[in-house]
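The protein record filed here:
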Amino acid sequence: MRVIIEKLITGAIGLAHKDGKSLFIPSTLPQEEVECHVVQDKKNYSLCALDEIITPSLDRIKPSCPYSGRCGGCDFDFVTAKTSAELKNEIVQDNLKRIGKLDYEFEVFPPAFSKGEDYRIRVRFHLDIKTRTIGFLPSKGSKLVPITKCLRLTERLNSLLEEKTTLLNYAKKLSLTNGVNQYGYVEVPLLDGEDKVSFGQDEVIIKVENYNYHADSSVFFQSNIEVLPSMLAFVKEETVGTKIMDLYSGVGTFSALFPDKRVYSVEKFKPCLQYAKKNAPTSIAVTEDVLAWAKKVKKEEIDTIIVDPPRVGLAKGVPELLKGFSPKRIIYVSCDSVTLSRDLPCFAPYTVKKCKVFDLYPGSSHEESVVVLEK
């Protein structure tokens, strides 16, 4: 069938309509006329596959990656980094208004973005030890896509990919303790630090402007240290007062910004919190689930609460508990604007005052955003 793409929704998936039914079509852009067919039909919508682009968008470019369309890592590599950020900003704002029902005005900042190549300091390779193959999983299926160079990765990570032997030897060692995944591959996470690459729990320093963060490849750290400084600056600038909560604090990425303030760093994953103690040594580190901690901790007035939950968003009951601390400001750092939009109304009477999107993963549909709430 032939349709025109109206807009992009979460996942950078094109939305069109036909005979009163919503059609979701990946790999498309707004205003493109396309041919597609239904692969999964539901009552009110259909999941479709793209057959042909009849009229391409002026924003469409030819992907520079030779693995485009096969490797599952980059599903949005057919626009420039600037266009990627602008379109993701539109997706986030649409979700806030449509899902979050935010029918009032708030300040929307231009999105932050970086170049689309050589930016990733973190990667998870999949290795087939028997065939000595290194690569990534495909966009569909489970057959490994062999990779000799990834345009998104730093030079040092690509050098390991080219040399192979170091990765293969480490994968053999890792397979003895961790085994293989459901597809029969060994997963090898790596983190490119200031002076070396972290394998497993090998600690490295990651320099982000004036901050030296301790981490290793077994814990989460943002992949794009070109955009991360602008996110840190935004959160720091929007934080008010001297008493701060950094919830879902990870390795203390935000806690480290406030060495002269009273900061509670709450993170249930113990390896992350061990690094938070190094990165933010003056903070009060708490190894506990946020919901459980917020239920029992003595209520005191907090100036700013920063939340940076996983993609599933905040657990039910967390927003209500956090309001009990009477914060002057709440800063919600989100990696999924759908769950963000679901959670925001739960903070009423707090309302959104500011929003900024950070395109930390150009080439992919993943988006990050920071929202500032006040009464």
Notes: The chain has a mean pLDDT of 96. Residues 291 and 316 are 9 Å apart (CA to CA). The longest strand covers residues 45-55. The radius of gyration is 22 Å.
